Amino acid sequence: YANCNFRIFKEVERIDFINNSGLKFLWSNDMMWTTNEELEAIRLNKVDCCLLTSKFHYDKLTPRILMSNPKQKTFIIDNYFDSDTWPYYKRPQRNMVCGKVSRDDLMKFSENFPVFYESACSDLPVEFRIMGWSDNLNKKYSWFKFDNRWTMLKPNALDTKEFLNSIDIFLYNCNHRFIENQSRAIIEAQLTGCPIVAPNKWNFPNMIWHTRTGYLWDSLEELQDVMQDLNNYDFRTKLGALASNYTRDIWCDKTKALDQFNSLLNYVSN
Known about the structure:
Blueprint: E1 2-3, H1 12-20, E2 26-28, H2 36-43, E3 49-52, H3 55-68, E4 74-76, E5 97-101, H4 113-120, E6 127-131, H5 135-140, E7 150-153, H6 160-165, E8 169-171, H7 184-192, E9 196-199, E10 214-217, H8 220-230, H9 233-251, H10 254-269
Parallel strand pairs: 1-2, 2-3, 3-4, 5-6, 5-8, 6-7, 8-9, 9-10
């Protein structure tokens, strides 16, 4: 089993060893794009099964996979999160803290990222907290004056759980060239009791129960109205508790996860 280790397709001897040893090669590409080497291995029947993590993911990648090999086996298997690793945390009453955690990747921030954040929370007494900041990002956004409401942390400056517990709302943002499938940070944030506010597209409707565990917006006006509502401590606390329970029921179901893996193993063995 290989997960997002694209280098394996450039080291074909490793795949040949798997195939020649009588083992099954299960490949999970969690990204929203494929590589030429990956598709070539699929074309040559070197991959026994391609794993996808959602119907949205399946719909995006499978056409490319099947174009390379119409007989290629594919299987949708949900991500699993350990419930004990991500306990619910009731945030203290304070000025609302909006933020996000991500890789220090230019694709993880929109071109107008700081303007977007401040516009979303227009005239609200909020703080902004980001983990995944770098010198490259600092250089890119040098045109913007970050005031004392902003805290920018380097990648892994804090334990992810500690960081998520320090924000009240996960305000999703990414570059217009990026497509999100199933952000790990979004699931982890919800488990800790942090509601998500995200655009109403991609796979977000399958991760966020609109108005019950978080919000999906279609316009800046909608987003601003949502942030006004979330500025109420009792309301966002209730939403966070619902988000934690809802997410735990879906992504922390060990029995369901084991059943899916057993189904996968039976599928690739036949």
